[in-house]
């Protein structure tokens, strides 16, 4: 499954020789696996708090991570420098820009 491929994207490379993107990919995979386990054990989706979750990930992996977060059904709070990647998956994005708070509703499907 996708989480497994996130944790071990290339089994021929030892973790200490991985790039920062590969490290991030492994950590995100572990986070998603843990969230799924919590949901399975408690029958409730966990609250997920993330900071710069898409940093160091390529576009394909970023899209899969966002898809996994959506399928998890959890309340997800994400801190980051860009809001656009999250606009399609979140019912509401709260943007803090130079001290001003803006509520940005989900974009309509094209």
Describe this structure in a few short sentences.
This protein is of the alpha+beta class and 110 residues long.
How do the strands and helices of this protein lay out in sequence?
Elements: H1 2-7, H2 20-42, E1 48-51, H3 59-72, E2 76-79, H4 84-87, E3 92-97, E4 100-105
Parallel strand pairs: 1-2
Antiparallel strand pairs: 3-4
Task: Kindly describe this structure.
This protein is of the alpha+beta class and 110 residues long. It contains four helices and four strands; from the N terminus they run H-H-E-H-E-H-E-E. The strands form two sheets. Strands 1-2 form a two-stranded parallel sheet. Helix 3 links the parallel strand 1 (48-51) and strand 2. Helix 2 packs parallel to helix 3 (59-72). The two termini are 29 Å apart.
> What is the H/E string?
HHEHEHEE
Would you report the number of β strands? 4
Q: Approximately how much beta-strand content do the residues carry?
A: 15-25%
**Low-pLDDT segments:** none
Note the total helix count: 4
Terminal Cα span? 29 Å
Q: Mean pLDDT score, rounded?
A: 81
- Sheet with most strands: strand arrangement: 1-2
The description of the largest β-sheet is: 2 strands, parallel
Shape: globular
Oligomer: single chain
Name the structural class: alpha+beta
Key words describing this protein structure:
single chain; 110 residues; alpha+beta; two-stranded antiparallel ribbon; 4 helices; 4 strands; 18% strand; globular
